[in-house]
Structure formats: C-alpha cells, structure tokens
Design a protein that fits this description.
The chain has 545 residues and is an alpha+beta fold.
C-alpha cells in the first residue's frame, strides 16, 4: 500500500510540475499567447498605453484614406479604448478598418472595455459599432452636447444632436448595447461644466428616427468630468474655449472645413495620472484651443507622454502648448495621413517621437514604478515584443539612450570608451559647448566628450614578483587624479579592481591570493570633473612571474 501511495504521489507531482512549466515557459504549445502576455505585469501601478496601428485587413483602398485614431489604455486588467478609428475608407471596402481594429483588440486579450470618443468626427468614432458588437462595452464616454451645440455638417441638416444619438444607437445595436452606460463628459472648468438637457430633444422631429437611442440616453446617461480605468485616473480639463461655426469661416478650405475646425477645437482634453507620471491627450484640438489651454494651465500641463493632436497636421502642434506639456515621449496616430512633419518637428524638440503610420507597428508605453519602457508589436499579434527598445534612439536628429533593460538614461553615461552627457527632462545627448557643474565641456557632433579630455594612457615601468606578492610601478599619466589597479588570472580574462590610489601614487604592492599562481595586471588613470568620473585608457596587461 505504501509503494502504491508513493507511485501515485510521484505521478501527481509530475503532472503539477508539467502544468507549471507550461505556464511559465514562453513559446510552449497550446495557450502560449496568453502565457506570453502575462509575463509583463499590468496590475497595481503598472500601465500600458497602446498607439494602435490600423492597417488594411482586406480589400483595396486608396493610400490617402484616413484610418484615424485608436489608443488603448490597460491598467489592472481593465481597458479603455480612446477613439475607434474610421469605419471604412471607401464604400466598397467596409471590412478594412472594422475587422482590423476588432482583431487587434482580441489579440491583445480584450473581452470587455470602456470606450471614450474625443469628438464626433468619423475618423475617431467610425469603428464604434463593430467594437460594441464584439466586446462588452461597460461605459461609453461621449462629449457633452453643450461643448459643440452649434455644429452642423455642410449642405445637410445633420446636427451634433443627430451625430450624438447615432453613436448611442450604434452602442445599442451592439450585442451588449443595453448593458452600456452613457457618460457625457465636460471639462472641470467653471462655465464649461454645465450638462446639456437631453430631454429637450424628445420633440425634435428630425431626431424621431433615433427615438429609441434618445430615450436610452436620457434614461441611462449621466454626466462626469473624470475617466478612470483600473488604477489610472483621468481628469477632463478641456476644451476651455467657447466656439461658434461662424468663428472659423475664414479657415474654410484651409487644411479642413469650417465645421471641421469647429468640431476639432471642441475635442475632449484629458490628463491621466500614472502614479508620478502623466499622459496628455487632446483629440484633434488645433492652435486656437492649444493657446487657451496653455494660457489657463501653464506649466501644470506638463506631462511625460502625449498623443499628438490632430494627426500632426499643421493646424496643431504649436510650440505654445508643447513648451508647457514638454513631453518626453510622443506618439502620433496619423493612420492614413502619412508623414506629418509639423507634428514630428514640433514634438521631437522635446523628446522621443513615433509616427504609427510611418513605423507600421503598434507602439506600447509600459509605465511601471514611475519608469517607462517602449515596446513595439512588430509581429502584429497584439503582444509587445519580448525586448523593449534599447540603445541609441533617434528622434528627428536628436538622440536618447536606453539601457539594456529598456530605461531612458540621463546625466553622464560611459558607453564603451566614450563619455556622453544626456541632459534635460528627455535625456537628449549634448553636442557642442556646455557648462556642466561649473566646468566648460565640449562634445563632438556625435555627442562624445572631447573636453576636458580623459587622462593619458598609463605605462607600466616595471613589475617585480615573488611567490607571495607583486609590486607594480608606472609612469605618471597626464590628467590623472587617481589610479585604478585591476587583476585577472588570464590576459583576456575578467579583470577585477583590486585598488584605487591617489594621483600621487606611482606603485602598488599586491599580495597574491593563491601562493605561487601567476596573475595579469593593468592600470588606468581617472579624474573627477563636472560631476562625473572620466576614465583613461588601460595600460597593456603585464604578467607576474
């Protein structure tokens, strides 16, 4: 009986261990995608922000067709989809965007989520219906009608009210539509936080075809100025301006239409708190609203991550607001709009810039313990690459450096034999002349410190050794404030530092750790300046006898 019990226990142990290994090892068969996804924590203070690349899933379309914006925030197992992109680019390719966005979200592991529509232009709300049909949408955040009540489309009678109820109707047409709560967002700004009286629309004859959606919105909607997802809290801070259609008459036909400029500037503007970091998103706001936001909030607009407004088009990305936000990382959901140089040139002055359309891959900002790592979905499978972005990263001619662990480096950096200074909030490498910690420094065009120069190379004069100790003597190295002595058991082995000596030292006596064994030694000079240590070249290795 005892032997039978032992055999039974052994079998159970093997099964448990096998299941455990399948859970933790990447690349196993079966549910390997789910296992891989869970290797990056998104619970607690960990947050992911996805700038989703929406490619053509099927059919044909004109390369100039607009895909629009779609950003996903993931926190503590919860999801918020901010804008749903366009529904389709042309009449005969309905499935192109819809299937791609839904498929991408499914690959990411999304089953239920909240949806936030920044404004009611079709390239931001067009994909709402398929999202509602394929996922359980718990909360649908829409701009309150008071923010843009003068809106109407050219040559039609379609008002902002009709567009609003059409979005509610799309949510109702979704499988889980009647479980969806409508939340009308207004900025937390005096004079702007009054909610529209939706019951006043019940008697408008032009809206009666949407009566079911109207009744649902009136009965189930509520107002708010906050948007939360998991442990992330967002506060609606704009728009702060009050606009009319007539105000934009002079801009009609200039990079958009009169009603287009009007609706863009009434986009919701929200600041999300990510622990000690912040994420700023403003839909399609243009320069006039950017100026009003900057005037109202000033430096309190400062954020670490920013979605580029209005696809980087020239009507936005003014330095007025960028100088206040000063984003270390920016991404542009310019899907279908091509390379928009205004957004790239403006944002890259302040930090890293990524154009989703140009990069052809979803970008993911992983915020954990108030530090950011950048991943891409280069396999287009909804899962971040195994390794984050590392090494030198160029942003329109400016360079940041990311460690082997994927974290942005700042301050002095010793990379190989070269010294760099990565300054400011965004860690751009310095070139030219700068005063650092009171010391005049010069850097080459590639960022290498050239002045003050490093100590000259050490030359070993002599080495005397016995079975128990070794005495090394060297010549003075120009510019050295200290000397470091290293030892290894082979000429190309792993050298370990055994001593740091004053700049006046010219010799060092080392007791052999192993009696009678031969060792290799080398010496280098160092000096401290501008708040850092500069290292000279090592002497040639010399072997003890």
């Amino acid at each position: 009986m005892l032997n039978m019990f032992k055999r039974f226990f052994s079998i159970i142990t093997i099964i448990v261990l096998s299941v455990s290994m399948m859970t933790i090892l990447p690349g196993v068969t079966g549910n390997s995608v789910a296992a891989t996804k869970k290797t990056v924590d998104t619970t607690g203070n960990s947050v992911r922000i996805y700038g989703i690349y929406m490619k053509r899933a099927s059919g044909k379309a004109n390369p100039s067709d607009a895909y629009g914006d779609a950003v996903l925030i993931e926190s503590d197992g919860k999801y918020l989809l901010m804008d749903t992109g366009a529904s389709r680019p042309v009449k005969d390719s309905m499935k192109i965007y819809e299937s791609n966005l839904v498929d991408t979200l499914k690959k990411m592991g999304v089953e239920e989520l909240d949806v936030y529509i920044s404004h009611l232009h079709k390239d931001h709300r067009g994909g709402l219906k398929p999202v509602c049909q394929n996922f359980k949408v718990n909360n649908l955040y829409l701009p309150d009608l008071n923010l843009c009540k003068d809106y109407h489309t050219p040559n039609t009678d379609k008002t902002i009210n009709a567009l609003y109820y059409e979005q509610v109707d799309k949510a109702l047409q979704g499988i889980n539509g009647r479980n969806t709560r409508i939340i009308n967002l207004v900025p937390d700004v005096p004079g702007k936080n009054t909610h529209y009286d939706y019951s006043s629309d019940l008697d408008k004859p032009e809206l009666q075809r949407l009566s079911e959606a109207m009744n649902f919105a009136i009965e189930n909607a509520e107002g708010a100025s906050t948007v939360n997802v998991g442990n992330v809290k967002g506060k609606v801070i704009g728009p702060v301006g009050t606009y009319t259609m007539k105000q934009f008459a002079s801009q009609d036909g200039a990079a958009g239409s009169q009603e287009g400029h009007y609706l863009n500037n009434t986009s919701l503007v929200t600041m999300f708190d990510l622990g000690k970091m912040k994420y700023f998103t403003g839909g399609d706001i243009e320069k006039i609203e950017e100026g009003k936001l900057a005037a109202r909030y000033g430096k309190s607009l400062s954020a670490d991550i920013m979605k580029v407004s209005h696809h980087g088009i020239s009507t936005s990305s003014s330095d007025t607001i960028l100088s206040k936000v000063s984003p270390t990382w920016s991404f542009n959901c310019n899907n279908g709009y091509g390379s928009k140089n205004t957004g790239r040139n403006g944002h890259s002055k302040y930090g890293y810039y990524y154009g989703v359309e140009n990069g052809k891959h979803t970008i993911i900002f992983q915020v954990n313990d108030n530090r950011v790592r950048i991943y891409k979905d280069t396999n287009d499978n909804g899962i971040p690459d195994e390794r984050p972005v590392t090494g030198w990263v160029s942003s329109n001619g400016r360079y940041q450096y990311y460690s082997g662990s994927g974290y942005l480096q700042k301050g002095w950096a010793q990379l190989g034999s070269s010294k760099y200074y990565l300054g400011g909030k965004s860690g751009f490498r310095y070139t030219g002349k700068h005063k650092i910690s009171g010391v005049n420094c010069s850097f080459s065009s590639s960022g290498v410190l050239t002045k003050p120069g490093k100590p000259s190379k050490v030359k070993i004069r002599s080495m005397k050794s016995t079975k128990k100790k070794v005495k090394i003597k060297w010549r003075k190295a120009s510019g050295a404030g200290k000397y470091e002595v290293y030892r290894a058991t082979s000429s190309k082995g792993q050298y370990m530092k055994v001593a740091t000596l004053k700049g006046s030292a010219r010799s060092y006596t080392n007791t052999k750790p192993v009696y009678g064994k031969r060792y290799y030694y080398k010496v280098r000079g160092t000096k401290s300046t501008a708040g850092t240590t500069i290292y000279g070249s090592f002497s040639a290795a010399k072997r003890s006898k």
